[in-house]
Amino acid sequence: MTTTTTTTPHLTAMGRKLMTAIGENGQGAPTLSFFDGGIVEDSGSWMSVLSAELSGEGSVAKTATGVANVLKKLDADGFVAIDSPDENGEQWVRLTKLGADTANQLVQPTPTDEQRAAALAAETVVIEKATKRRGAAKTGNPKTDEKVNAAKAAKSAKSSAKPTAKTDEPDKSKLPALPEGYVVRYPHKSYDLCSTLKGQGKIKWGTRCNAHGTFTEAEGGRDGDTKGTAAVRPTWCKGCAKDAK
Ligand SMILES: [Zn+2]
Question: Is residue 151 situated within a structural domain?
Fold first, then answer.
């Protein structure tokens, strides 16, 4: 019995590209926001976020609208499910079982050599810059020292070759857990916009201060973003109120 293939929805070239990008997100360092549970059924992201992140030169489509159209086609074919707009007009896109399986099948467990090389190159530049500044400040002949130090730095950066975390990302691992049912929906540097998950009643929103681990409820996603701003955080986060003094 080989007739099952005829019922498998067809992936367009762009659909394949998009599903591959999602599958790749489950490998190595994730580049897409959300998909908190990994590349599994019901994991997903916001339509607006996903469309923005997968658009541009060399990506799935040049424009966010183009990506949104690919997503709509994938929705029609059962690879993803797009929820109706929430109170903020935002639509949540989640993987169906077919979508999750497809995304995972499209990518192989590849080594992340390219990503490591990119991280190393970035690290080397940072070290070179720092070394140049120090060299220039210390000696009367900064140009010679620059060259020597930069070469040294490049060499040591190569030999240490440690995988780098994004240095501008706060360490959130020590923050207290979010209230039950909440997950981080829109991570930011100073605050995280959080919400409960779809399919568990009306979505509740909240904002966490990433400096102090405090949490407050919000009326919606936009309100949560407002509460996360530096101007408003001191009104509900005691730590921020203290820092503001
Ligand atoms: Zn705070």
Answer: yes
